[in-house]
């Protein structure tokens, strides 16, 4: 039996390297700058909330709903790790609304947690970056957030490779009224219809028609594989739903007109059409009509939202699991959720927001070569050639001088010799190492080895004797010139100095 603990990462979680952290920080800073230009301000809420504040409820006495990680405190209150950033914002606003400006515009980024079965691209811990406006009843707030998303995508270098698609829950509610699916007793059938529409890109209109009707086989031609039960709509009702998702036209005006015809007679549906018309007008006036488009096929969480919904979709192609080209797809979305904040207060509170999937957006930027996966430059390493107190004090003084000059530096603190120290510096991706033995100390000089340049030069040297004779990228400088020489090397390597 082993006498040591096996190191293992829990499923659905990932470790992140310094390069990944640096790239993510740079991306988040770009998005943050855009949000602040629009007048949004940061706020941070805890990772843990009371379970009922998150909108989840206990199915029994022992454990809360699946989907959240939960535990009980000393008072037997159920607490949960947050599964998104919107519910905690609703709680924060309700507790502090009397002293907050109204409307309240805020952004947040942080980790969220889902107690779900992990799989490819599906994690139990992942990062989101949200922006929300609370207390603004006009869909002008929705239009603004859509334009802000467009600006964020462009700031990240994605100009011409994305579209922000906009739909409205009220319009779909109007369609449901027209085909006889209004009312709480039809909620299950409505959800089946939504799921069918959401698969339009994967299975096409004929596949969606099957799911709106009796159902669909995984392999329709052979009628084999898994069978998904359909919504059971009659053909004429299915025609209306398919007409709804196909009503997108070349212009927003045409699309809105098509939707208006479909929901004739529905007050709620007509209200939704007018809201889309206003959003299109504002977007066009601001010069965003080529990037923010009315698209009836967006059904993102429509059962959760109360009005406009939107989705940022990247339009460039990647290779799918089957080897065929497919669009990269959504990297974020959101919409109007007028009922969430009001759960905590006596009056309804309008709200709208957008959430970016940080990891997915970072994957997209990597795919396009917008961010690299190269190593992050480490600190300058001062090697320890002599372990006498006098020598160690000298090495420590060098490090202190470098740090005071704004150059990241460290003295080697291990117990190994020269060869291992050089290997350590290489693994740290140090731009250079500083070498001072007793002879150098007496002469008032140091040896500086430029590791990045050394790697480049060594590519053309194959003979060990030649290597030892040439000592590429190593120079001898006066101790007094240490800072200036190191700064030149660090700046050439792309590091901060």
UniProtKB/TrEMBL annotation:
GO process terms (BP): histidyl-tRNA aminoacylation
UniProt cross-references to Pfam families, sorted A to Z:
HGTP_anticodon, tRNA-synt_His
Gene Ontology CC terms, in alphabetical order: cytoplasm
- Swiss-Prot/TrEMBL catalytic activity: tRNA(His) + L-histidine + ATP = L-histidyl-tRNA(His) + AMP + diphosphate + H(+)
Spell out the molecular function terms from Gene Ontology: ATP binding; histidine-tRNA ligase activity
Q: What keywords are assigned to this protein?
A: Aminoacyl-tRNA synthetase, ATP-binding, Cytoplasm, Ligase, Nucleotide-binding, Protein biosynthesis
Q: Which InterPro entries match?
A: aa-tRNA-synth_II (IPR006195), aa-tRNA-synth_II/BPL/LPL (IPR045864), Anticodon-bd (IPR004154), Anticodon-bd_dom_sf (IPR036621), His-tRNA-ligase (IPR015807), HisRS-like_core (IPR041715), HisRS/HisZ (IPR004516), HisRS_anticodon (IPR033656)
| Similarity-based family | Belongs to the class-II aminoacyl-tRNA synthetase family.
Q: What is this protein called?
A: Histidine--tRNA ligase
Q: Which gene encodes it?
A: hisS
């Amino acid at each position: 039996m082993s006498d040591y603990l096996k190191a293992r990462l829990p499923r659905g979680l990932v470790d992140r390297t310094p390069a990944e952290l640096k790239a993510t920080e740079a991306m988040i800073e770009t998005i943050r700058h855009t949000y602040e230009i629009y007048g949004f301000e940061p706020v941070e809420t805890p990772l843990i909330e009371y379970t009922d504040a998150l909108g989840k409820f206990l199915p029994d006495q022992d454990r809360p709903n699946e989907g959240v990680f939960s535990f009980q405190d000393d008072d037997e209150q159920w607490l949960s790790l947050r599964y998104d950033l919107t519910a905690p914002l609703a709680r924060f606003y309700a507790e502090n609304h009397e002293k907050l400006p109204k409307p309240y515009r805020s952004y947040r980024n942080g980790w969220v947690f889902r107690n779900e079965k992990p799989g490819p691209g599906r994690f139990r811990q992942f990062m989101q970056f949200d922006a929300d406006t609370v207390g603004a009843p006009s869909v002008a707030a929705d239009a603004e957030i859509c334009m802000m998303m467009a600006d964020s995508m462009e700031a990240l270098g994605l100009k011409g490779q994305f579209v922000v698609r906009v739909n409205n829950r009220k319009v779909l509610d109007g369609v449901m009224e027209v085909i006889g699916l209004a009312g709480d007793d039809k909620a299950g059938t409505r959800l089946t219809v939504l799921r069918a529409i959401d698969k339009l890109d994967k299975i096409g209109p004929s596949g969606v028609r099957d799911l709106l009707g009796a159902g669909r086989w995984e392999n329709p031609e052979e009628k084999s594989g898994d069978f998904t039960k359909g919504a059971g709509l009659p053909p004429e009702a299915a025609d209306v739903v398919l007409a709804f998702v196909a009503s997108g036209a070349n212009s927003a005006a045409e699309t809105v007109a098509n939707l208006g015809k479909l929901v004739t007679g529905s007050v709620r549906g007509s209200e939704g059409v007018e809201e889309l018309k206003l959003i299109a007008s504002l977007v066009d006036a601001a010069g965003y009509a080529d990037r923010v488009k009315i698209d009836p096929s967006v059904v993102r969480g429509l059962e959760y939202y109360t009005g406009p919904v939107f989705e940022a979709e990247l339009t460039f192609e990647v290779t799918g699991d089957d080897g065929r080209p497919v669009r990269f797809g959504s990297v974020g979305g959101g919409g109007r959720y007028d009922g969430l904040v009001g759960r905590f207060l006596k009056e309804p509170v309008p709200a709208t927001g957008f959430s970016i999937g940080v990891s997915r957006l970072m994957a997209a930027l990597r795919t396009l070569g917008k961010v690299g996966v190269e190593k992050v430059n480490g600190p300058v390493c001062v090697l320890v050639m002599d372990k006498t107190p006098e020598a160690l004090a000298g090495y420590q003084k060098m490090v202190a001088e470098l740090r005071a000059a704004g150059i990241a530096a460290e003295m080697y603190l291990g117990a190994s010799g020269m060869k291992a120290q050089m290997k350590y510096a290489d693994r740290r991706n140090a731009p250079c190492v500083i070498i001072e033995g007793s002879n150098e100390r007496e002469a008032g000089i140091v040896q500086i080895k430029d590791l990045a340049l050394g790697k480049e030069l060594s590519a053309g040297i194959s003979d060990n004797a030649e290597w030892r004779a040439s000592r590429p990228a190593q120079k001898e400088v006066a101790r007094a010139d240490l800072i200036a020489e190191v700064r030149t090397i660090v700046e050439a390597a792309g590091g901060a100095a």
